[in-house]
Specification:
With 255 residues, the chain is α/β, with parallel strands linked by helices. It is built from eight helices and twelve strands. The chain has a six-stranded parallel sheet with strand order 2-1-3-4-5-10, sandwiched between helices. The protein has a two-stranded parallel sheet with strand order 6-9. Helix 1 packs across helix 6 and helix 3 runs parallel beside helix 4. The relative contact order is 0.13.
Length: 255
């Protein structure tokens, strides 16, 4: 059995559907479920695999310090401890490269947990980069671009020099399944390359001439993107993925 904790999130909900379509027996669990916050002796057994997709991330609404502690530190540590003692067969913990580039409480809580989990028995840590794809949250960058193309509106870019390493959700889902049989390790689900937001929008405009965007850069916000030594998706064609994703969006195709 494969358990996916964080069933209501973007990654967790997609992963459950993908695992089921791949023939796996899956059960999704919400991170708010008290069973796994207080008692890990529930239905999970030593032959089972747990994907921990739960965690408080960067949200447009205030998040309490208690939530960061509970979801980003306590829950994954309890799961890892159960895995190390053989109560869980294997744990695959999803983290984010943002913890290397920010000093927020979110980044610190994720970094602390990833550092502790790295090297633990039967525990893999997966650093996610800028995941995009169908049905993503409307406040996400690529979702805004797609909505602007569809509605004929002008997209407003406020961070033109920020660098991002975009990876389509389909690559990540395929990679998650591959990790089931791979040895426990640290995996970077990025391409190893990055592009500035302004350069990316210019490429999208070449594909979709009707796409309009404007730049509002009042603070010269510049960020670098962490470059892993061993990117899992090195060499993928980002623009082909973006073109296909926009096509699916315009034609209302989801998965």
């Amino acid at each position: 059995m494969i358990y996916v904790i964080g069933k209501n999130g973007y990654i967790g909900s997609k992963l459950i559907k993908h695992l089921e379509s791949s023939g796996y027996k899956v059960e999704g669990i919400g991170r708010e479920d008290s069973l796994f916050c207080k008692n890990l002796e529930g239905p999970i057994g030593p032959d089972d695999i747990v994907f921990n997709c739960a965690g408080v991330g960067i949200k447009p609404v205030p998040v309490s310090n208690e939530s960061y502690l509970k979801d980003n530190i306590v829950l994954p540590h309890r799961l890892a401890a159960a895995t190390s003692f053989g109560c869980i067969g294997k744990m695959i913990h999803l983290s984010s490269y943002f913890e290397f580039t920010q000093r927020s409480l979110y980044a610190k809580s994720k970094l602390f947990t990833s550092a502790i989990l790295t090297g633990q028995k039967n525990v893999s840590v997966v650093y996610l980069y800028n995941v995009f794809g169908y049905d993503e949250y409307p406040n996400r960058f690529m979702a805004g671009v797609k909505n602007a193309i569809k509605d004929g509106k002008t997209f407003v870019l406020t961070t033109p020099l920020a660098r991002r390493d975009f990876v389509h959700i389909d690559h990540c889902l395929k990679g998650f399944v591959e990790l089931i049989d791979k040895p426990s390790d640290v995996y970077h689900f990025g391409t190893g390359g990055s592009t500035t937001m302004i350069a990316l929008l210019k490429e999208i405009k070449r594909m979709y001439p009707e796409f309009q965007f404007t730049v509002e850069d009042s603070n010269n916000y510049i960020t670098e993107c962490y470059k892993p030594r061993k990117p899992y998706f090195k060499g993928i064609d980002l623009m082909a993925d973006i073109r296909d994703d926009i096509y699916r969006y315009m034609n209302k195709e989801t998965s």
